[in-house]
Amino acid sequence: MSHDLRAELEGNLPGSPGERLYIQCEDLFKIYKIADLEVVALRGLDLKVRPGELMAIVGASGSGKSTLLNILAGLDQPSAGRAYVGGRDLLTLSQGEMVEYRRRAVGFIWQQTGRNLVPYLDSVQNVEVPMILAGKPKKEARERAIELLDAVGLSHRLTHKPSQLSGGEQQRVSIAVALSNDPPLLLADEPTGELDTVGSSAIFELFGDLNRRFGVTIIIVTHDPAIAAQVDRVVAIRDGRTSTEIFRRTRADGNVTRVVHEEYVLVDAAGRLQIPREFLESLHISERARVALEEGHVQVLPEPAGREERR
Asked: What is the pTM of this model?
């Protein structure tokens, strides 16, 4: 582990006093081989997540966001780079350690509820299964399952099977299942993809409640633009790299407190940043740009007209 990375994970990074990180991804690459083709899903991606943070990852289809989530869940391995979660180096875990990581350190929620729930078990039994497999006594597993179902607002649906529940209720049971072994990290891949607007809003609100109640770190991958109002931070991925971040801030304006959203372009460890495509197009910047350091800021300028002709 590099000196800077170790310092940051331990909260001693210069310029970030006291900041601790639960997740640190650095220069991640993921390449899939399909027949004779190579598809690059991640292209040097960086990501930092603090313990107990509630955040979302957004991006177009094929941007790499689900690939990143699968790596953090221990369901896939990066081709290169570094991925640390809770002090674990995901690239060096043995097969047994990875199984233990998936079982106890991370909870995962799929978009399709059929992948989260056993259809012939009722709600309590679905939540009990991961705990029993992890060796928890039956009585303790039952008590924990009832507690979690109450936390997701389903104390009146304990004995209902998935087919007897609405889509939103099924996803609530899925969240309880993912939390059953009390993981410090909860990952959700398009958890509202099969729900309507009202159902989606309720699920996002529930994630906020659970984040505050249990202190669990939550990362949500979604296409839903309304997520910015429900989480503390939104990270956008474009072309396999993190490109922008949106923070939700509370501002006091006299006697009025208002919520504002501030957007930033990310600079990776190599000093690269992704300028929004619409900015480049408006300035007619394609292959090259001039960069100038000015008083307190950096200028990005298009290539002078006529440069091509002089070559």
From this structure: 0.84
